[in-house]
Each structure stands twice: as C-alpha cells, then as structure tokens.
Amino acid sequence: DQQVKQNSPSLSVQEGRISILNCDYTNSMFDYFLWYKKYPAEGPTFLISISSIKDKNEDGRFTVFLNKSAKHLSLHIVPSQPGDSAVYFCAASTYYGGSQGNLIFGKGTKLSVKP
Amino acid sequence: NAGVTQTPKFQVLKTGQSMTLQCAQDMNHEYMSWYRQDPGMGLRLIHYSVGAGITDQGEVPNGYNVSRSTTEDFPLRLLSAAPSQTSVYFCASSRTGPSGELFFGEGSRLTVL
Lengths: 115, 113
What we know:
B: mainly beta, 7-stranded mixed sheet, 4-stranded antiparallel sheet
C-alpha cells in the first residue's frame, strides 16, 4: 500500500503563474517531508523540506505547506519559470522519532511550464 | 567536489549475466542507499547501509546484493540479471542518516535483454 501518494502524474502551467503540486500520506508517524526535483538523465536534487512542527516553509520562489490533520502537503512555485519543468518527487520519513526510517517517495509529478 | 559518482552510466546485459554497479561518495557520509526508478513507480529502495560493514534490505531487495567495506563505496551486484531488472538505478548518500536529505548520483541505466 502506497504510503506517499502523488495523484497527479502531470501538470501544465503557464510561465509566470503559480504551480501547485500536491502530496498525500497515510502514515501518521511521518514527521519530516521533502521535495526533490529531477531533470531527465540526472539524479534527483533536494529542493525544500518541512518538519511536522511547522505548517509552512519558504525558500525563494518555493513554499511547502503542511496540513497534518489532512495528511497533505503541497509545493507552491511562484512565479513558475520554464526551467522549473521537471519531475517533482514528494518524500516522507520518521526523522525526529526514536528511530529514523528510510525516505519513502511518491511516484512523482511531471511539471511542464509553458513560455 | 564530485559528490556521488556512479559507474557505468549505461549498460546492456543478457538475461542471466551478472554485473556490479559502482557507487562512490567523497562526502564522508555514513548512510548510503540504492534506489531504482521505473515508469509510474517512483523511487523504490533496494538496499541501504548506515555505515561500513552494515547493510540492510529495502523495499525491493530480491535479485540484488550489496556490501560496504569502506565508507566511500557501496556497490550493487546483480547476480543473475532478469528483464524485470531493466531500470534506472540511483545511488544516494546522506550526512544525517536515512531520513534526511539525500544526495543522489546521476544514475545508471540498465537494460536486460
């Protein structure tokens, strides 16, 4: 059973507009969430993270929101740029608890930003 | 600074052949792991290691072996390749352990005929 779900395989957005990528999780023990970005023929690279004690974390154009009661997080990219076109993976783990668990990844969402 | 280096980048095997995917990191990270990426399946953990001499299985370990004799190296061995092992393989390492930020290599694309 998937513990981390990205239900939208793809998303297309116009340049300059907001991109919103969504992620749901089922394991209430997860307390650390990360977003990775992956370009074709490259390895994933870390983008932004959030711990369960926060509900928002910002880094430049990227903001991650966490809704623990809904077990839902989202990544907002404002404004979107053509260089943001990539596959975005959501990942979750038990980081702050007694024993660290491995990162569990979603299936990814392919973002296309049109000029 | 090289980070995580994987070799080879591309490999074609015949069913039943064996091979080793190499992974080396120069960041002195204790934690290393191998993932495979398949279309529509995301990244799935194969094996991981929390330090030299210690390895453990991930979500999809069957058909793969690993060893960790040094902090720097974490090779992944396919003992008898099968078409189901056609995939892109990523090695990753982390300074903060299995739950923290992972640094990935560029990937190794394997095709098994």
